[in-house]
Design a protein that fits this description.
The protein is α+β, with helices and mostly antiparallel strands and about 250 residues long. It has one domain: Gcn5-related N-acetyltransferase (GNAT) (Aminopeptidase), CATH 3.40.630. The chain is built from 7 helices and 9 strands; from the N terminus they run βααββαβαβααβαβββ. Strands 1, 2, 3, 4, 5, 6, 7, 8 and 9 form a 9-stranded mixed β-sheet that branches. Strand 4, helix 4 and strand 5 form a beta-alpha-beta unit. Helix 2 packs across helix 3.
Length: about 250
């Protein structure tokens, strides 16, 4: 049986590929749809992908013409030291990219890598990290930065991110497999971004996502959440402040 050829294309290549990419992203991130409700996401994200369609990567199976992995990013201007990367992480990248000019951007910010469930375990996500780094270099960006969402942190929602990134597995490697993938591609951990994605919504919103009622104030875990959501019954609202980890790449 012939092996399918995988080719990297961009959303700018065709309307059909753009639509397919949106379908993949919606399917992959649907279970974590509450993350779409950060202010930066609502105000800027979809437009960013359109405005910079030539930078949004799709790993396409040439046999089917469909993407098997995506990598989304945004060009931003950042002149500070890496230690000054803000606690707002992902939201900051999206808002900065959404309000800035591409002609002034000197850094490529990686936003998300999406792989459909049926295509996981084939090394596609790891490859897309490298592809993002490649286009950062090809397009003349000084470096690439990424507010990485550690994949296994969902199992440890009460651990601080500072503690978590210091954990090691039985072989002495970084405990988190997704962080480990970034390190293997040449990235280095800068520091946690504690307010990377912040969602503030009415308590009814969180009850829908959690599938339960919240009768008392407190911290409650969510399926897929990296940390609990803080519920305030008196104010009838809940705040989810997701920490990520700044990872930086230089050429």
């Amino acid at each position: 049986m012939a092996v399918s050829e995988l080719v990297v294309r961009t959303r700018a290549d065709s309307d059909a590929l753009r639509r397919q990419a949106v379908e993949v992203e919606d399917a992959v991130w649907g279970p974590l749809g509450f993350l779409n409700h950060t202010r930066a996401h609502r105000e800027h994200y979809d437009r960013l992908l359109e405005d910079h369609a030539d930078l949004q990567l799709c790993l396409v199976d040439e046999a089917t013409g469909r993407p098997v992995a995506l990598a989304n990013c945004v060009p931003v201007a950042f002149a500070g030291d890496l230690s000054e990367l803000p606690a707002e992480g992902w939201d900051w990248l999206v808002e900065t990219g959404g309000t800035g000019r591409r002609s002034q951007a000197n850094v490529l910010g990686a936003l998300a890598i999406s792989v459909p469930v049926a295509e996981r375990g084939k090394g596609y996500a790891f490859r897309m990290i490298g592809e993002l780094h490649r286009i950062a270099e090809v397009n003349g960006f000084e470096r690439m930065i990424a507010p990485v969402r550690p994949s296994a942190k969902t199992v440890h929602p009460h651990a601080t991110m500072t503690d978590y990134i210091g954990w090691q597995d039985e072989r002495g490697r970084c405990f988190d497999p997704w962080l480990r993938s970034h390190l293997a591609q040449g990235g280095r951990v800068v520091h946690p971004c504690e307010r990377s994605m912040v969602v503030r919504e009415h308590i009814a919103f969180w009850e829908t996502w959690a599938g339960r009622r919240f009768e008392t104030s407190g911290d409650y875990t969510l399926a897929g959440g990296l940390v609990p959501v803080a519920i305030d019954v008196e104010r009838q609202c809940g705040t989810y402040s997701e920490p990520n980890v700044w990872v930086a790449y230089t050429h």
